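S.,

Sequence below, as promised.
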Amino acid sequence: MILASSLPTPSPSPSATSSLGPLAVSLPELIIGTIAFLIVFAVLYRVLFPRIQQTLQERTEAIEGGLEKATETQKEAEQTLEQYRQQLAEARHEASRLRQDAQEAGAQILAEMRAQGEAERERLVAAAHEQIDADRAQALQALRAEIGTLAVELASRVVGESLDEEARQRRVVDRFLAELEAESAPSKATP
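The prediction came back faster than expected:
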């Protein structure tokens, strides 16, 4: 427009200015304005438009690449999440199995310990019975010897003769004990 104003402009015809009013443009200004517009448009088209296109293309590629990358990352995240869920489920299953095994092993150990305790108890009871039987037999033998000695002493006082001979003492004691046992056997059977 600056170019157009520096050139001499023919004065508009009175009929053209009156019909269009303030919008009336002279023909040389219109031609110069159109040429200037085309030059500016050509410069912009040649210089600025390719840069704009390149920038838009880069942004489009970046956005598409970002979307593809985001989609890919989301798929990877979903796969990783699914793997973690599977691992967690496997770990829970394994923990449950280990807990079950531990309970079974504990029950088995408890049963074995009970069996060992029962066997030990039975062994101790049997040993105690054997000890009691042995002590009883020893006490009976000691009692027989003591009774025999007392019986011989008593018999020698009653009879008035000495029962020093050991064989005779044994016979007398055995006969006396046999009589005692015979007398006590019917009394034990009646209660």
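The two ends are 150 Å apart (CA to CA).

Coffee later?
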